[in-house]
Amino acid sequence: xxxxxxxxxxxxxxxxxxxxxxxxxxxxxxxxxxxxxxxxxxxxxxxxxxxxxxxxxxxxxxxxxxxxxxxxxxxxxxxxxxxxxxxxxxxxxxxxxxxxxxxxxxxxxxxxxxxxxxxxxxxxxxxxxxxxxxxxxxxxxxxxxxxxxxxxxxxxxxxxxxxx
Length: 164
What we know:
Outer membrane protein OmpH; Protein Binding, DinI Protein, Chain A; Chaperone_Skp
């Protein structure tokens, strides 16, 4: 009798779990494939294009100064070499400051996009879960293996695109 109860006790959770329908979603992948996310991200990147051009230009100037210092440094007077080094240091500081500023703008822009898209992602996951009668949806990053029929990422992306 004890063995039967023990067997039933061990089998019941397995049977209950068998009735559960589980889906797996890659939320970042779903967002990145969503048209609205891509549009917003492209706008963010284009808004930072001026900074990127300035970064490229400053990087070129710094390299030019370094090259000049390497080639002509031995033939320059101490004052000329010092001036060139000072110019290079100033350009480097300007480059670093501009890079930090651009990174802050990019991070802020990405955060703003996520603030807008996160509730939409949640709604899309809920809609797909209800449509497919799922009891549980797990983040794909927390899963080691999943059968492809359990992955709802593409369906979530389609739902996001339909929510425009």
